[in-house]
Amino acid sequence: MQDVRNKLGAALFCVLLTVVHTWPLASAPGTLSRNDNADAALNAWIIAWVAHQLPRDPLHLYDANIFYPEPRTLAFSEPLIVPALMVAPVLWLGGSAVLAHNLALLAGMALTAFAGYLLALRYTRDAAAGLVAATLVAFNAMTLTSIPHIQMQHGYGVLFALLGFEILLLEPRRWRGAILLGASVLALALTSGYMAVLGLTALVVAAAWRWRELIGARAAGARRRLVLAALATSAVAGLLLAPYWLAHTEQGLARVPATPPAAIAAGFVIAVVALIVVNLEVLRAPRPYQTFEGIPPIYDMLAAAPADAVLVELPFPPARANGPNAAYMVASTRHWRPLLNGYSGFVPASYRRRAESLAAFPGGDTVDELIADGVTHIMIHTRRWNRGPSAIARLQRDRRLVLTREDDEGRYLFAVRR
Prior knowledge:
Distance between the termini: 69 Å
Number of domains: 2
Shape: elongated
Helix content: 55-70%
Number of strands: 6
Structural class: mainly alpha
Radius of gyration: 24 Å
Order of helices and strands: HEHHHHHHHHHHHHEHEHHHEHEE
């Protein structure tokens, strides 16, 4: 019973540290955000999309509503399935994508800290060492300067995988270590490819360090269970993440070109220096949260539109700087209609071609091209686009379009006459 109380106390300590290190986020998780950063907005959209699509059409989870008409567009970014499942009830009860994202962020940091505590406690049998480890692993320069990247805050899978490996070695005839290890690696794979690689690397290092225990006769059961856990995890992860391979082979999804070795070496030196400096400065760093005022009511018109409605939002950013699309994606969580716009780590060729064409909008045949692409609604943001007012005037004279609504923030929503 004392052990349970100690762990509950440690869990509360981790929650408290999370609140302190992210303050004032916990005071207003529904209105504060880092949506000034396109990646934070992208991640909020991903979490909302997964929670929206899984109970409705899980077989088409990866066919997200961005970069229309491209398939498998969720595979252009991290899946974030595990963080989304954590906060899905918040979205199902009507909470915003920003609220769900912030709660997932806080939960990830607290759970990572608690996992660090449990792992260090297993290694050292010292609760104080566990609390120090919790602090170091979850609240450091890397995590606290990467708040817009929620996947960085969900590192508990790495720690639980190491904990499972340790239990497996100590209890080679029992399954709980193998199950914890396999489930943790699967959770990493369903959250972030980067975190999955980190977790597997940590396990390889741990196995190399404990190789004598792994090859001993006593560890025969542990080896069998480790192999079976690896096979089961690989099979499930391969099935769930197959869209990434299809996106690679059919749509050209790829990493950026490899960095030259000299640049990697120079980057390592810079990183070491930066790590020291940032750790000294991190406690003085401001928390640049912005106020999220909700999704503009004009998007309610799209929520009431027919199911086959397709939206394009203008200005349509060029492929090399498509970060502004992230705001459109967050707004799409109000209606979930297909959207020509999109932002991710990969930009498909179809978007590049469309961006080049829409640079002339509304001139030339751009309106005809949009209608041919299946677009049924056009949203113009005049405050973001110096050509917005002239575009509005031209579209109002176009008999194929009808202005359905405008708001005080300079947004105009046109619909194609059917």
